[in-house]
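Cont'd.
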Amino acid sequence: NAGVTQTPKFQVLKTGQSMTLQCAQDMNHEYMSWYRQDPGMGLRLIHYSVGAGITDQGEVPNGYNVSRSTTEDFPLRLLSAAPSQTSVYFCASSYGRTGNTEAFFGQGTRLTVV
Amino acid sequence: EDQVTQSPEALRLQEGESSSLNCSYTVSGLRGLFWYRQDPGKGPEFLFTLYSAGEEKEKERLKATLTKKESFLHITAPKPEDSATYLCAVRDYGGATNKLIFGTGTLLAVQP
């Protein structure tokens, strides 16, 4: 049982480059979300989705786009990378549409923007 | 403003030395409080969900409790493998955004 799979695990980007962080889950969860984790700060929600075709903004959405074409996949796109986006990114999924159940997290993507 | 504060920031224990971690929260209407464990270089791993004051849950050496203002994670006779960062998060009824609000965590080190 793979759970939540994120790729890549590490990435270095130059300022202005774009890229997509991949996230896939095999638990048929409706609720999926993206967080960033920075030193001294708690995990902060970037975007979330309550099902295929439905996405919404979280706490820190600027500079990021998401889409949800299938239940399994929830990619996060960085449009034009900035040094402030250097962070560790986590994708999570949970049962139901409210997100008020235990979340399963991926292993994270460590992104450095130079 | 919704807020979650965890204390202490870091805690060092000897193997077998019991202690507690604190998570205090300010939300308009608690919908659930979650505890996660995070090992270095990995994603958070779910431990407990508590939904109402007075509720308690246990798993091995860990016990989580909840009051109207805070939650405690009690660690009884810890072992070195309990070393990790413990995260607390709350979900609020009244927020416009459906989100978990995370604390910054307590880094626990258990020495043999």
